[in-house]
Amino acid sequence: MKDHADIVVIGGGAAGVGAARTLADAGKSVLLLEAQDRLGGRAHTVHIAGMPIDMGAGWLHSAPKNPWVEIAEARGFAVYRSPARWGEQWRDLGFSKAEQQAAWSAFGAFMQAMHTPPPSDLATDLIPADSEWAPYLDALSGFINGAPMREMSVTDWLAYEEASLDVNWRVCDGYGALVASHATGVPVALATPVSAIDTSAKQLRIETPRGAITADAAIVTVSSNVLASGAIRLPRHDAILHAAAELPLGLADKLFFTLETQGDIPDNAHILGHPRSAITGTYTLRPFGRPVVECMLGGEGARAMEKEGLNGAAEFALGELTGLLGSEWRKRLRFVAGSAWGRETHVLGGYSQARPGQHGARAVLREGVDPRIRFAGEATSDGEFSTAHGAYNTGVAAAKALLG
Questions:
Q1: 24 closest CA partner among 9, 45, 42, 13
Q2: Which band of pLDDT confidence, cut at 50, 70 and 90, is reported for residue 264?
Q3: Taking the domain 90-166+250-343, which CATH number applies?
Q4: DSSP code of 303?
Q5: Crossing angle, helix 388-403 and helix 14-25, to 10 degrees?
């Protein structure tokens, strides 16, 4: 590992890879430092039974304007354009058409009410006290934001909605694999966590277990929870640490089951486990047409299941699936992989949401306090937070700012 670079990028997720690629392409001496033993951050592709599986980021959200689509095509990654079926309940299992219509109407009313944020900025203040669909709305908030309604800023959520396009595609060989591939040719040091950035001299001194690195500038792209934890000592950066604490990471975890017999299940069929509970999973049957069931747990559900551990979470998911599909399905499903992002030491969660009244913390974090140190990552985006493309865009912007 070299001990000097023009610019050091800290964190090898979508933001860090985007920043490092931009700097390297501009001819700068750059070094990308990543605490884990892989690149991609919260985009992580593994291979199970010969199939690529995304343990974190999996959707090319706002696909028509998502820069990863163009990057994928340039790098030879096939883009899967079949639409998501999140709004459907396969065969209306456990969720009648009338109930689906009522539930979606409740969500639609909430989304409309968001355009007039309450003084509290609390999402729960927009939900009628007697709403029978409050648990359902909590579950949706968990899937979308990683947190329940009682923790959501209306202003923040609305900023995301106004910036997004309802077109979502996938990467056949894995979003995580795509992100990692974009760093090809960039100098990288894996398993190299940064413990401190010394700003007292003209050049920055970046401390790692493998030795110190000097640099003219740095781009910090670690998660808001890692920043707020103080894992990286940043003298005179109290405002940054406070802003990071106001942008905590929610939870969004995944479980995967191989499917032995597929029968007449259509590609990408979708079911919600329990429409009247905040603790439930959303299931995609045969994503990409593969013999797999993908479960996503968010918010309250992810918190509860992380306490249970992966095996406990898998048993919960199997219980929901067999309750809807029949007990014979237990023999057809085999748990093969799962994520628990809250337990990942160098991540500490899923994706960020602003605390009520704290949407402005995103700009505080992005602007920083030392012109030599830029901050990037999904938490610093005003409207594209919680996405890999939002993270990428902030990384590119930080790099271009340092390039002048």
A1: 9
A2: confident
A3: 3.90.660.10
A4: H
A5: 30
